[in-house]
Write a structure and sequence with these properties.
alpha+beta; 5 domains; 20 helices; 7-stranded antiparallel beta sheet
Length: 636
């Protein structure tokens, strides 16, 4: 029924009894004591005409702590206002009220007060109405207003939409909808505040999915997967991605552009191993960044790519998720990652959160890009006002300056920054120190020299058959042809080509079936002649190559023909006649013993009786003798 506690003043036990446990007369006595302390009239035992019904009339016991504080505040304000109101007779009551409201707003900036509110509070004060002196919103009556289901469903249709309408608009549209379909319910429609509370009651995840879309829902509501790094070592996985720098640079050609960064990040340490600056992301930029990383830190066991076309290139690591159904219908030559012994893994489509390198680029933006004078920001809101002036007056850093500064920043700042991973054993170490420590535990560290690496990183063409012009590669939208002195002898053979984009003077040709190296052929630009040319030398050079090919074929064939001795050479016509004679020895057409005779009209006119003959039978023996005699005559 009650609680006990020790009184520190007299060291005696006190009993705390709930007010509701007392009789009604004692509760009324306590209520009147509290009301007198606030300057309110005491409550009488019997009230003939109560201002409010018993169900809505509040007592001090019904109030929350916040509402009690508000009650004390307003009773103090009203007492102070009434005192001031009676102190200045030179002003009218209305002027004093306006001045007091202005002063109260300065004294209580968070309190909503006006002359109308002051008058309503005064009326409640004089009528001893506690409910009129407090803000009942969010109190004991919170949530008691009911919203008909059909109204709530209509409101939800407007609210749970990716147009993200504000609640005020949703309420207005709902009201219009109710007026059209349920006009009899419009007078009883709850207030906007009620619908606002109902909107807040909808689970946050549901609101996020239907109003902000699947990506926002996945980023903020779905559980995320934490990767374990304990069993991972340095160079086990490199993560690759591209980043657009948020600043402008000036190239040697005078053009102003934004550069792109292709980078590889070690998953274990978070250190950046290799990178390349380029004008546009491409497969060549990916290879240059990979080459840079391998020369610095060795060959990784695996790389983690996203689904960009600059990474999913057929001759680098394969098409990954971009592979079409008929793409691998025919066998493809080995790609570069297979030559290097590197596994390729691809991120799930539209799953950028799976790549930690995305967060790295945010660090680059804040620590590096913002230090460049021509920083333009990722959005228009981040763009400095001074950028336009700098671009107009040529205050633009050169690309070479950016390349040097970037190299210094990555190794001097980023890789030397504190390790930010979750492994406690590396706490207090820098990124490159984590890499140095972890690389000592790997079973196999592979490091090719520069010459071998250049060979391993050669691009690979698609399978092709040797053409009469040789083999070709597509580079920068052009078809470049390569051929050797004996190309004409290998027309039709299935091969593939490996080439270095930095040196297009020659290519290496490999057998498609066995991957065996066959030849090194040089770029053949002699067969490329302008449509209208006045230089006879160009045509003469091309004709010379054609003549040399023809001579080579003649010599090759003559060598085969001359390999047979002169006395044993075979005349083709004589060989044909001999073969025909041998075949005709046993060739005989055997006619049947019975046949139908065919007579001409002249024969029938001379011998009408022949028309009555329908079939003639011949003795087989006699027929064989006749056939043998005919064959004998042919031999003679």
């Amino acid at each position: 029924m009650g609680e006990t506690k020790d009184n520190a003043a007299n060291n005696r036990t006190e009993y705390i009894i709930p007010l509701t446990a007392l009789p009604q007369d004692l509760q009324l006595k306590w209520e009147n004591q509290q009301r007198r302390s606030l300057g309110l009239e005491p409550v009488k035992k019997a009230i003939k005409a109560p201002l409010k019904t018993e169900s809505t009339r509040l007592t001090l016991d019904d109030l929350t702590d916040k509402q009690r504080s508000e009650l004390y505040l307003w009773t103090g304000i009203i007492k102070d206002w009434l005192t001031i109101r009676d102190s200045y007779e030179q002003y009218s009551k209305g002027e004093i009220d306006e001045m007091y409201v202005q002063a109260a707003r300065l004294k209580y900036p968070d309190l909503e007060i006006s002359t109308d509110i002051l008058y309503r509070r005064l009326k409640a004060y004089r009528n001893s109405d506690i409910s009129g002196l407090i803000d009942k919103r969010g109190g004991s009556n919170k949530g008691t207003t009911t919203v008909p289901e059909f109204m709530l469903n209509a409101f939800s249709r407007f609210y749970l939409d990716q147009q993200c309408l504000p609640i005020t608009s949703c309420y207005k549209f709902t009201r219009d909808w109710v007026q059209e379909h349920y006009p009899e319910s419009l007078p009883d429609m709850p207030s906007e505040r009620t619908f606002r509370r109902r909107a807040e009651d909808i689970p946050y995840a549901v609101r996020m999915y239907f109003r902000n879309g699947d990506k926002a829902f996945s980023d903020k509501c779905l559980p995320y997967v934490e990767r374990l790094y304990d069993d991972l070592h340095a160079n086990d996985v490199w993560i690759a991605d591209n980043h657009t720098f948020d600043f402008f640079t000036a190239g040697k050609d005078g053009k102003v552009r934004r550069l792109y960064l292709t980078a590889f990040l070690d998953a274990k340490s978070g250190a950046m191993t290799g990178w390349n600056l380029t004008y546009a992301p491409s497969g060549d930029s990916t290879l240059l960044a990979l080459r840079h990383g391998i020369l610095r830190c060795g060959v990784p066991k695996a790389v983690y790519f996203d689904n960009g076309s600059e990474f999913l290139v057929s001759d680098i690591g394969g098409r990954g998720h971009r592979r079409k159904k008929d793409w691998n219908k025919d066998p493809l030559p080995p790609n570069i990652l297979q030559f290097l012994g590197i596994e390729m893994h691809n991120a799930i489509v539209r799953n950028a959160k799976a790549k930690p390198i995305e967060r790295t680029f945010c660090t680059f933006k804040n620590q590096f890009s913002r230090c460049i004078p021509t920083f333009c920001g990722g959005t228009i809101l981040e763009r400095p006002e001074s950028l336009k002036y700098k671009l107009k007056h040529g205050i633009i850093p050169e690309e070479e300056q950016i390349r040097i500064a970037l190299d210094s920043y990555i190794d001097g700042c980023f890789n030397a920054a504190p390790y930010g991973g979750k492994e406690r054993r590396y706490k207090g170490m820098r990124r490159f120190e984590v890499w140095n420590s972890s690389i000592q535990d790997v079973d196999e560290f592979r490091q090719p020299d520069e010459a071998n690496l250049s060979m391993l990183l050669k691009r690979v063409s698609k399978p092709q058959a040797v053409n009469r012009n040789g083999v070709y590669i597509n580079f920068a939208g052009e078809k470049l042809w390569y051929r050797g002195a004996d190309t004409v002898l290998h027309i039709g053979e299935k091969v593939y080509v490996r080439y270095d984009p930095a040196d297009l003077r020659s290519v290496r040709v490999y057998d498609m079936a066995t991957d065996k190296y066959l030849w090194t052929w040089d770029l053949d630009d002699d067969l490329l002649v302008d449509y209208l040319t006045n230089h006879r030398e160009d045509i003469a050079t091309a004709e010379k190559q054609i003549a040399e090919s023809k001579k080579l074929v003649r010599e090759y064939g003559r060598g085969i023909l001359d390999s047979v001795d002169a006395d044993k050479r075979i005349d083709i016509f004589a060989a044909m006649v001999k073969n025909s004679v041998e075949g005709s020895k046993d060739m005989v057409f055997k006619k049947p013993a019975k046949f139908v005779p065919v007579f001409s009209e002249e024969k029938l006119e001379k011998s009408p009786a022949l028309g009555n003959i329908s079939e003639i039978s011949v003795n087989i023996d006699i027929l064989d003798k006749l056939n043998a005699a005919a064959a004998s005559r042919r031999k003679d």
